[in-house]
């Protein structure tokens, strides 16, 4: 099974940015833990601060991978283009947010990508990525 984790803008700063919201662990450190927990899954990780690069990556793997875990960061609330890219591919996409977007500023309460995702996991910290893996590895996502 092949799963790609995609993180969007500013998530390269996990562990140093707004620790009260995002915690103090880097994503690279968490990703090592995640991949060790699921040795039978071929995980890949991609991060970009650029909207077009995220879209290109969705197009690149969206017809050959078994699932995608996407934290689009602030693009969640602004990008029709990312939403359209998700709609155009075959791989199920699980939307993940580290913080609870509904407990934050009002502009974060709306996700433009959710309608084209298999589901959304929000507010469980980095554990949300593991919850997405669980979904993608069960018959629920088929």
Automatic annotation (TrEMBL):
Example of a GO biological process term: chorismate biosynthetic process
Keyword Amino-acid biosynthesis among record annotations: yes
Catalytic reactions on record: 3-dehydroquinate = 3-dehydroshikimate + H2O
Leading EC class: lyase
UniProt site (Transition state stabilizer): 17
GO molecular function, one term: 3-dehydroquinate dehydratase activity
Residue sites binding substrate per the record: 71, 77, 84, 98-99, 108
Top-level taxonomic group: Bacteria
Pfam families: DHquinase_II
Pathway given in the UniProt record: Metabolic intermediate biosynthesis; chorismate biosynthesis; chorismate from D-erythrose 4-phosphate and phosphoenolpyruvate: step 3/7
Annotated EC: 4.2.1.10
Keywords: Amino-acid biosynthesis, Aromatic amino acid biosynthesis, Lyase
Family the UniProt entry places it in: Belongs to the type-II 3-dehydroquinase family.
UniProt cross-references to PANTHER family, sorted A to Z: CATABOLIC 3-DEHYDROQUINASE
HAMAP family: AroQ (MF_00169)
General function of this protein: Catalyzes a trans-dehydration via an enolate intermediate.
Subunit details: Homododecamer.
Name of the protein: 3-dehydroquinate dehydratase
Organism listed in the record: Roseivirga pacifica
UniProt gene name: aroQ
